[in-house]
């Protein structure tokens, strides 16, 4: 799978990048052929608190899924965005199977 990870105004550490790649690799089990993913990591400062924003754009032949998650840590936001993408893929897969 082709995965592009972009961090806006900061440098993501290797541990975070590996976590993202591992999560996205799991999506191969839900839909064949595999797609490509773009992950955008941002930090938003609201008062004294910095919220972490993760946006995942996942493209497969014939469909494009986009999920944005905002949490207090990147790990939580990645997990939430992964669940959203997985749900969208499963719904798309059900629609395709219902048509056949």
Mean pLDDT over the full residue set: 89
Largest beta-sheet details: 4 strands, mixed
Pairing-aware structural class of the strands and helices? alpha+beta
Count of strand segments = 4
Q: Which H/E pattern describes the elements?
A: EHEEEH
The spatial strand order of the largest sheet comes to 1-2-3-4
Tally of helical runs: 2
Low-confidence stretches at least 5 residues in length (pLDDT < 50)? none
Which CATH first-tier class would you pick? Alpha Beta
Give the name of the CATH architecture.
2-Layer Sandwich
Q: State the separation between the terminal residues, measured CA to CA.
A: 27 Å
- Gyration radius, rounded: 14 Å
Could you say which overall geometry the principal axes of the C-alpha atoms support?
elongated
Estimate nothing, just give the exact number of structural domains: 1
Q: How large is the share of residues in beta strands?
A: 35-45%
Portion of residues in helices? 25-40%
* CATH superfamily placement: Ribosome hibernation promotion factor-like
CATH topology: Double Stranded RNA Binding Domain
Question: What's the structural blueprint in terms of helices and strands?
Answer:
Elements: E1 2-7, H1 14-25, E2 36-46, E3 49-60, E4 63-71, H2 74-99
Parallel strand pairs: 1-2
Antiparallel strand pairs: 2-3, 3-4
Helix pairs in contact: 1-2
